[in-house]
Structure prediction request, 256 residues.
Amino acid sequence: MTNYLDTLTHRGWVKFDDVFSTQLVDEILDEYLTNEHHFVNIQKQKGIAHLVENATHHSFVICRKMLTLLENPILGKFLTEYFNGAYILNTMGVSRITKVNKTYTQNIHRDIRSFSGSNKLWLNAIILLSDSTEENGATWMLEGSQNSPNKPEEKEFFDNAIRATGKKGDVIFFDGNMWHAAGKNLTETDRYIITPFFSKPYIKQQLDYPRALGIDFGKTLTPQLAQVLGYNAMVPVSLEEFYQTDENRFYKRSQG
Prediction:
Protein backbone atom coordinates (compact mmCIF):
# COMPACT_ATOMS: atom_id res chain seq x y z
CA MET A 1 0.00 0.00 0.00
CA THR A 2 3.00 2.29 0.43
CA ASN A 3 3.21 3.17 -3.27
CA TYR A 4 -0.48 4.03 -3.42
CA LEU A 5 -0.24 6.21 -0.32
CA ASP A 6 2.86 7.96 -1.68
CA THR A 7 1.10 8.67 -4.97
CA LEU A 8 -1.91 10.06 -3.14
CA THR A 9 0.34 12.29 -1.03
CA HIS A 10 2.33 13.68 -3.95
CA ARG A 11 -0.31 13.92 -6.69
CA GLY A 12 -3.41 14.27 -4.56
CA TRP A 13 -5.08 11.25 -6.15
CA VAL A 14 -4.47 7.59 -6.95
CA LYS A 15 -6.27 4.89 -8.94
CA PHE A 16 -6.85 1.22 -8.17
CA ASP A 17 -7.45 -0.81 -11.34
CA ASP A 18 -9.99 -3.63 -11.74
CA VAL A 19 -11.26 -3.56 -8.16
CA PHE A 20 -14.81 -4.65 -8.95
CA SER A 21 -16.03 -7.09 -11.59
CA THR A 22 -18.09 -5.96 -14.54
CA GLN A 23 -20.87 -8.28 -13.40
CA LEU A 24 -21.09 -6.72 -9.94
CA VAL A 25 -20.95 -3.19 -11.32
CA ASP A 26 -23.72 -3.96 -13.83
CA GLU A 27 -25.92 -5.49 -11.10
CA ILE A 28 -25.45 -2.43 -8.92
CA LEU A 29 -26.24 -0.04 -11.76
CA ASP A 30 -29.33 -2.04 -12.74
CA GLU A 31 -30.64 -1.92 -9.16
CA TYR A 32 -29.99 1.81 -9.02
CA LEU A 33 -31.76 2.58 -12.30
CA THR A 34 -34.76 0.56 -11.10
CA ASN A 35 -34.98 2.68 -7.95
CA GLU A 36 -33.76 6.07 -9.12
CA HIS A 37 -37.32 7.43 -9.27
CA HIS A 38 -37.62 7.22 -5.46
CA PHE A 39 -34.87 9.80 -5.07
CA VAL A 40 -36.13 12.01 -7.89
CA ASN A 41 -39.66 12.04 -6.46
CA ILE A 42 -38.36 13.30 -3.09
CA GLN A 43 -36.21 15.91 -4.83
CA LYS A 44 -39.30 17.14 -6.71
CA GLN A 45 -41.42 17.19 -3.56
CA LYS A 46 -38.83 19.38 -1.85
CA GLY A 47 -38.57 21.71 -4.84
CA ILE A 48 -34.87 21.10 -5.47
CA ALA A 49 -34.88 18.69 -8.42
CA HIS A 50 -33.47 21.34 -10.76
CA LEU A 51 -30.55 21.91 -8.37
CA VAL A 52 -29.48 18.26 -8.10
CA GLU A 53 -30.40 16.96 -11.53
CA ASN A 54 -28.69 13.66 -12.38
CA ALA A 55 -27.39 13.23 -8.84
CA THR A 56 -28.75 11.22 -5.94
CA HIS A 57 -27.46 11.01 -2.41
CA HIS A 58 -27.17 8.25 0.21
CA SER A 59 -28.22 5.89 -2.57
CA PHE A 60 -27.46 2.64 -0.73
CA VAL A 61 -30.21 3.36 1.82
CA ILE A 62 -32.54 2.04 -0.89
CA CYS A 63 -30.09 0.28 -3.23
CA ARG A 64 -28.53 -2.20 -0.82
CA LYS A 65 -26.32 -4.00 -3.37
CA MET A 66 -24.02 -0.98 -3.12
CA LEU A 67 -23.06 -2.04 0.39
CA THR A 68 -20.95 -4.80 -1.19
CA LEU A 69 -18.59 -2.11 -2.46
CA LEU A 70 -17.74 -1.07 1.09
CA GLU A 71 -16.42 -4.49 2.11
CA ASN A 72 -13.55 -4.80 -0.36
CA PRO A 73 -10.51 -5.88 1.71
CA ILE A 74 -7.92 -4.13 -0.47
CA LEU A 75 -9.69 -0.78 -0.24
CA GLY A 76 -10.34 -1.36 3.45
CA LYS A 77 -6.64 -1.85 4.11
CA PHE A 78 -5.78 1.25 2.11
CA LEU A 79 -8.31 3.39 3.98
CA THR A 80 -7.19 2.09 7.36
CA GLU A 81 -3.59 2.97 6.56
CA TYR A 82 -4.57 6.38 5.18
CA PHE A 83 -6.55 7.32 8.30
CA ASN A 84 -4.08 5.51 10.57
CA GLY A 85 -6.97 3.66 12.18
CA ALA A 86 -10.74 3.73 12.16
CA TYR A 87 -12.77 5.49 9.48
CA ILE A 88 -16.43 5.74 8.50
CA LEU A 89 -18.48 6.45 5.42
CA ASN A 90 -19.47 10.11 5.50
CA THR A 91 -21.69 10.12 2.43
CA MET A 92 -22.22 8.13 -0.77
CA GLY A 93 -24.23 8.89 -3.89
CA VAL A 94 -24.56 8.35 -7.62
CA SER A 95 -23.82 10.86 -10.35
CA ARG A 96 -24.79 10.69 -14.01
CA ILE A 97 -23.09 12.80 -16.66
CA THR A 98 -25.16 13.21 -19.82
CA LYS A 99 -24.66 15.01 -23.10
CA VAL A 100 -27.84 17.03 -22.67
CA ASN A 101 -28.19 18.17 -19.06
CA LYS A 102 -25.58 19.73 -16.80
CA THR A 103 -24.93 18.34 -13.32
CA TYR A 104 -23.83 20.55 -10.42
CA THR A 105 -20.73 18.39 -9.98
CA GLN A 106 -19.44 19.87 -13.26
CA ASN A 107 -18.76 23.12 -11.40
CA ILE A 108 -15.26 23.55 -9.95
CA HIS A 109 -15.57 22.54 -6.31
CA ARG A 110 -14.19 20.56 -3.44
CA ASP A 111 -16.30 18.42 -1.14
CA ILE A 112 -14.89 19.37 2.23
CA ARG A 113 -16.20 22.75 3.32
CA SER A 114 -13.32 23.72 5.61
CA PHE A 115 -9.72 23.43 4.40
CA SER A 116 -8.04 20.78 6.55
CA GLY A 117 -4.48 21.10 5.26
CA SER A 118 -2.33 18.05 5.93
CA ASN A 119 -4.75 16.63 8.50
CA LYS A 120 -6.17 13.40 7.11
CA LEU A 121 -9.82 13.96 7.98
CA TRP A 122 -11.55 13.21 4.69
CA LEU A 123 -10.90 11.15 1.56
CA ASN A 124 -13.01 11.16 -1.60
CA ALA A 125 -13.53 8.17 -3.87
CA ILE A 126 -15.00 7.57 -7.31
CA ILE A 127 -16.19 4.09 -8.23
CA LEU A 128 -16.52 3.87 -12.00
CA LEU A 129 -19.77 2.24 -13.12
CA SER A 130 -18.87 3.11 -16.71
CA ASP A 131 -15.60 3.50 -18.56
CA SER A 132 -14.47 7.06 -17.89
CA THR A 133 -12.83 8.91 -20.78
CA GLU A 134 -12.07 12.47 -21.75
CA GLU A 135 -14.90 12.22 -24.28
CA ASN A 136 -17.61 11.14 -21.81
CA GLY A 137 -16.79 13.45 -18.93
CA ALA A 138 -13.89 12.06 -16.89
CA THR A 139 -13.29 14.18 -13.79
CA TRP A 140 -10.88 17.12 -13.96
CA MET A 141 -8.44 17.24 -11.02
CA LEU A 142 -6.02 20.03 -10.24
CA GLU A 143 -2.99 18.31 -8.77
CA GLY A 144 -1.46 20.31 -5.95
CA SER A 145 -4.64 22.23 -5.22
CA GLN A 146 -5.18 20.05 -2.15
CA ASN A 147 -2.47 22.17 -0.51
CA SER A 148 -4.25 25.49 -1.01
CA PRO A 149 -7.32 26.87 0.78
CA ASN A 150 -8.15 29.10 -2.19
CA LYS A 151 -10.39 28.20 -5.11
CA PRO A 152 -8.52 28.51 -8.42
CA GLU A 153 -9.74 30.75 -11.20
CA GLU A 154 -11.50 28.89 -13.99
CA LYS A 155 -8.72 29.52 -16.53
CA GLU A 156 -6.02 28.41 -14.09
CA PHE A 157 -8.00 25.29 -13.28
CA PHE A 158 -8.69 24.08 -16.83
CA ASP A 159 -5.23 25.08 -18.11
CA ASN A 160 -3.52 22.88 -15.51
CA ALA A 161 -5.95 20.15 -14.40
CA ILE A 162 -5.58 16.55 -15.54
CA ARG A 163 -8.31 14.04 -16.40
CA ALA A 164 -8.86 11.02 -14.14
CA THR A 165 -9.75 8.39 -16.72
CA GLY A 166 -10.36 4.71 -16.01
CA LYS A 167 -12.27 1.55 -16.75
CA LYS A 168 -15.54 0.25 -15.33
CA GLY A 169 -14.74 -1.28 -11.94
CA ASP A 170 -11.75 0.97 -11.20
CA VAL A 171 -11.66 3.09 -8.04
CA ILE A 172 -10.10 6.54 -7.75
CA PHE A 173 -9.23 8.11 -4.41
CA PHE A 174 -8.42 11.78 -4.02
CA ASP A 175 -7.73 14.26 -1.26
CA GLY A 176 -10.88 15.91 0.06
CA ASN A 177 -9.17 19.31 -0.27
CA MET A 178 -8.55 18.90 -4.00
CA TRP A 179 -10.43 21.17 -6.39
CA HIS A 180 -12.07 19.15 -9.14
CA ALA A 181 -14.98 19.08 -11.59
CA ALA A 182 -16.79 16.49 -13.64
CA GLY A 183 -16.15 16.90 -17.35
CA LYS A 184 -18.54 17.39 -20.26
CA ASN A 185 -20.00 14.31 -21.89
CA LEU A 186 -19.63 14.61 -25.65
CA THR A 187 -20.99 11.12 -26.35
CA GLU A 188 -24.50 9.70 -26.64
CA THR A 189 -24.00 7.34 -23.67
CA ASP A 190 -24.43 8.47 -20.06
CA ARG A 191 -21.49 8.07 -17.67
CA TYR A 192 -22.25 6.78 -14.15
CA ILE A 193 -20.13 6.92 -11.03
CA ILE A 194 -20.63 6.24 -7.31
CA THR A 195 -18.95 8.72 -4.98
CA PRO A 196 -18.30 7.40 -1.47
CA PHE A 197 -16.53 9.88 0.81
CA PHE A 198 -14.78 8.64 3.95
CA SER A 199 -13.83 10.49 7.10
CA LYS A 200 -12.54 10.16 10.63
CA PRO A 201 -15.35 8.75 12.82
CA TYR A 202 -15.73 11.96 14.82
CA ILE A 203 -16.83 13.94 11.75
CA LYS A 204 -20.62 13.98 11.52
CA GLN A 205 -22.11 11.89 8.71
CA GLN A 206 -24.26 13.74 6.19
CA LEU A 207 -27.02 11.25 6.96
CA ASP A 208 -27.27 9.30 10.21
CA TYR A 209 -26.79 5.92 8.55
CA PRO A 210 -27.20 3.70 11.62
CA ARG A 211 -30.59 5.22 12.40
CA ALA A 212 -31.59 5.49 8.72
CA LEU A 213 -30.87 1.79 8.20
CA GLY A 214 -31.97 0.73 11.67
CA ILE A 215 -30.17 -0.47 14.77
CA ASP A 216 -31.35 -4.04 14.20
CA PHE A 217 -30.01 -3.93 10.64
CA GLY A 218 -26.58 -3.15 12.07
CA LYS A 219 -26.65 -6.41 14.01
CA THR A 220 -26.85 -8.36 10.73
CA LEU A 221 -23.68 -6.78 9.31
CA THR A 222 -20.11 -7.94 9.42
CA PRO A 223 -17.99 -6.05 11.99
CA GLN A 224 -16.17 -4.34 9.09
CA LEU A 225 -19.32 -3.05 7.42
CA ALA A 226 -20.89 -2.00 10.73
CA GLN A 227 -17.76 0.04 11.42
CA VAL A 228 -17.76 1.70 8.01
CA LEU A 229 -21.44 2.64 8.27
CA GLY A 230 -20.87 4.33 11.62
CA TYR A 231 -22.45 1.90 14.07
CA ASN A 232 -19.42 2.30 16.36
CA ALA A 233 -19.50 6.10 16.21
CA MET A 234 -23.10 6.86 17.09
CA VAL A 235 -24.16 9.78 19.26
CA PRO A 236 -26.63 9.07 22.11
CA VAL A 237 -29.87 11.06 22.15
CA SER A 238 -30.81 10.64 25.82
CA LEU A 239 -29.20 10.33 29.23
CA GLU A 240 -30.27 6.68 29.30
CA GLU A 241 -28.31 6.09 26.10
CA PHE A 242 -25.34 8.14 27.33
CA TYR A 243 -24.71 6.34 30.61
CA GLN A 244 -23.40 2.97 29.49
CA THR A 245 -20.69 0.48 30.33
CA ASP A 246 -17.74 0.56 27.91
CA GLU A 247 -18.98 -2.33 25.78
CA ASN A 248 -22.40 -0.71 25.34
CA ARG A 249 -21.29 2.82 24.58
CA PHE A 250 -22.71 4.37 21.44
CA TYR A 251 -19.39 6.02 20.54
CA LYS A 252 -16.68 3.41 21.03
CA ARG A 253 -13.24 4.20 22.43
CA SER A 254 -11.61 2.90 19.24
CA GLN A 255 -13.09 5.71 17.13
CA GLY A 256 -10.63 8.44 18.13
Q: What stands out?
A: The chain has a mean pLDDT of 96. The two ends are 23 Å apart (CA to CA). The longest strand covers residues 88-97. The domain at 2-255 is CATH 2.60.120.620 (Jelly Rolls).
